[in-house]
Amino acid sequence: MPDYGRLIVVSDLHGNFRDYKRYLKLWDKDDEDSHIVFTGDMIHAVNGEDGSVEIIEDAMFKSSRYPNYHCLLGNHEWSHITGEDIFKGNVNLRQSFENLVSYRKGYIEPSLTRYIRFFKLMPYFLKTSNGLFISHAGPATDIFTITDFHNMFDDDCRSSSLHGFLWNRYAARFDGYSISDIDNFLNIIDCKFMIVGHTIVDSGYKVIGNQLILSSSFYTTFKSYLDIDLSKNYGSMDDLVGDVKLID
Ligand SMILES: [Mn+2]
User: Fold this and answer.
1) Residue 214: which H helix or E strand, with range?
2) What are phi and psi of 173, to 5 degrees?
């Protein structure tokens, strides 16, 4: 990202088309210095109405039309690329999404293939000139050098390192990361702070060392987003937290 302009960061929407539209109102699509990024898991509602198809159709259109509109890959989009089932409770959300596509479009194809092609084009990360690294989840805990980081793209798509940036949570029992894993990774990629979604935090955001977890829609009372000034020097986590905002 350039060292000027504005970047709105929105995390997991999980099919909430109403919230998606509310966040889009914050972004000036015709101003090329105004950027918006959705940090993955735009699809798969787990309760309530499922607007996943409406979101994806709009995201495909805007991605092709506006260079200042960005969507990152999340583990829920990933499930359709790899064909891995993904469960919430007893519900197979990958199957539910396929059923939804059939229902909304009349037939599952060619829409599903178009969506998967779009998911495959989603970048994994965004890095800003003022030292912010934005991804769906993670960091992966097996990154020790910048070479490791770059090499993860040479592996096949189930590379454990990439998996970590889609799935890892803080202090989880398996594959969890620690505060020192965050600092180690930030040091390697020369960033000051990391911003992720993926984990639901009731207060809308949560600080884990030099990582900020954002919950923009899914299951939270407080729905928060980040309003980043790309030219600003973020010297402390407090500076970054100062730019967290809530939608009502
Ligand atoms: Mn996720």
Assistant:
1) strand 211-214
2) -65, -40
Domain boundaries, position 31: 6-135+195-247
Residue 215 C-alpha to ligand 1 middle, in angstroms?
A: 11
Examine residue 140 and state whether it is found in any structural domain, yes or no: no
Count how many domains the chain has: 1
User: pLDDT for 183-206, tens place per residue?
Assistant: 999 999 999 999 999 999 988 999
Question: Does 177 map to a domain?
Answer: no
Cα–Cα nearest to 168, from 180, 176, 179: 176
- Element (DSSP H or E) covering residue 6: strand 6-10
Between the CA of 52 and the centroid of ligand 1 the distance, in Å, is 14
**How many Å lie between the centroid of ligand 1 and the Cα of residue 165?**
10
pLDDT digit string, tens, across residues 56-105: 999 999 999 999 999 999 999 999 999 999 998 889 999 999 999 999 99
Alpha carbon of 99 to ligand 1 centroid (Å): 21
CA 114–ligand 1 middle distance (angstroms) = 21
Rounded Cα distance between 75 and 165, Å, is 9
Give the span between the Cα atoms of 248 and 232, in whole angstroms. 26
pLDDT at residue 174 above 80? Answer: no
**CATH for 203:** 3.60.21.10
CA of 197 to the centre of ligand 1 (A): 7
| CA–centroid distance, residue 67 to ligand 1 (Å) | 24
Cis peptide before 139 (omega within 30 of 0): yes
